[in-house]
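> Could you send the COX15/CtaA family protein prediction when you get a chance?

Sure thing. Input:
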Amino acid sequence: MTLTLFALGVYTAATGSGLACEAQWPLCSDQLIPALTINPDFIEWFHRVWAMVTGFLIIGVAGWTWLGSFDRRTRLAATLAVAILPLQITVGAITVTVGGLVPGGYAVSTHAAHLVVALAIFTLLGLATIWGGGRGSPRLFRIATGIAVAGIAVSAVFSRAVPFVTYSPGAQAGFYVTGLAGHLGLVAAVAYATEAARTGYTGVSRSAAKTVRALATGSMVALVGTLLLGRDLVLYTTVWQRLNLAALGVAVALATGAAWILRAADDTGQSTEPIGGD
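Output:
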């Protein structure tokens, strides 16, 4: 739901539909429910409704972690997602109130904040899911790095740094869906690498796990840079395009390196160090 909300938000902003409701929030053109036809008003309204339902589900997830037998870190991740949810709602409301409640709200700074907070919520929910699922495994570890490589590579097709397709609203939504899938794979890879470095995984040495964690973290930083550059936060000159392309290349290379190390460790049948070791 949150991944879809991200894509809807990008599509809404890219089509200019965020300003379609006459700078009103929570109403839309003086209506609670606009005409249910595909038009800018409907796109903005649908985005808001999807966000509201997703918000309630996020609260439900946090509540479930406290009612169920989940560990402290799972509860913390889910609860933090809820804690910053009001900030995301507030920033989202500000971005669509030009000349309304907050004059000049539709600005680069609010767009950047909206994206960063949304990414933080998405990451926290990912961690809650990963940690709440119990102990990882070498198989899940490899799957995570595979998803990371695939997501980043496919996002390059839609990226504005690589002119394969026109960077249309649909392409922008596609870029964020695939890029965020890659991001989630990297988050999982870092989480599993941390666990493997601490307790050991069969077939994956602690040193290999630490190397994979460093590579995945570096890839994540580069990928977040491309996600930020995917929005109109800077005047997208040739220099920024080259920087974007470089960041995308670094993200793919580091994620591929992490996946290759895990594959090599599996092929050589490395055994883990004793569980009690450092």
